[in-house]
Amino acid sequence: MFLAASWCMGRFMWLLPIFTLGWLFVSMTTTYGIAVALNHTFPNFPYISYTGVEVPERGIFTFSIAVTAIMLAANAEMRFLFVKEIFHEKKMNKKWKNTNVAGLVLGLISSFGLLLVGCFQVDVMKPPHYFGAFLCFVIAIVYLWLQTVITWKLRHVAQKPQDGKVWRAIRLFVWIWQILNSAASTILLILFSVSKATYKMQRKLNMGTKWDTLRGVFLLSTTTEWLLAFSIMFFVLTFIPGFKRLKDIKVKVTLDKGEKSGPPPNGEQQEMNDRERLQPEKQEV
């Protein structure tokens, strides 16, 4: 992922979060529009997964979500490398370095969950789909808060005299944005989980359907799911200021040339010593 992203974008890596959000928005609206146009789902806020159940939108949904998952993983990896370089430069302790590694792991797990959501349709493969949704949403929220903490630390250790007031204001703005975004995403996750569980429980008790008495709780669960997805994606935009400071991105490949790095065996070492001892005698003759 790092190799592909660095080769394609280079010093314009700051565009990656924008491309990621734009790709997801176009993909979701496309599958939603096709599903509604072909009467495969209803137009008033269905669950996201139900916009990619039937053909042909199923293939578009799977492909677009898979690409989004890869792009999110690339964002998480670039964020990790950016923070890693600063922590190395400032000689941060092992605790903060491990925190950065944990952020990378959580970001990759969340991206993997999104991949499961796209590859396993909710109508025929619910267990892996719901497991992927759990990883995608719940783990993502933990990732957001962890990155917010890392940004708070960066504000104190990454300050440079030549930055001036502009960059300091940008760092403060990014940190506040991340706090508000993480808080909003957490609230949306709670509302989505509670409303969906309530709707399913009341529907099993024959208390109504999504078209009558349960319409309110159903719309609350669907709208909060859409808002939650875009709230998490908007958080990625906070990586732009950091990515814009990337001056050079390189990938170094080292090949094994088959050279022996260790000392020779005892027998060879003794033979070499004998040759070195006899060599001066040959020169004197």
Automatic annotation (TrEMBL):
Residues 272-285 have a biased composition (Basic and acidic residues). It is found in: Endomembrane system. The chain crosses the membrane at residues 12-38, 58-80, 101-124, 130-152, 172-194, 214-240. Pfam families: Frag1. Signal peptide: none annotated. It comes from the Eukaryota. Keywords: Membrane, Transmembrane, Transmembrane helix. It is a multi-pass membrane protein. GO terms for cellular component: endomembrane system. Its main location: membrane. This is CWH43-like N-terminal domain-containing protein.
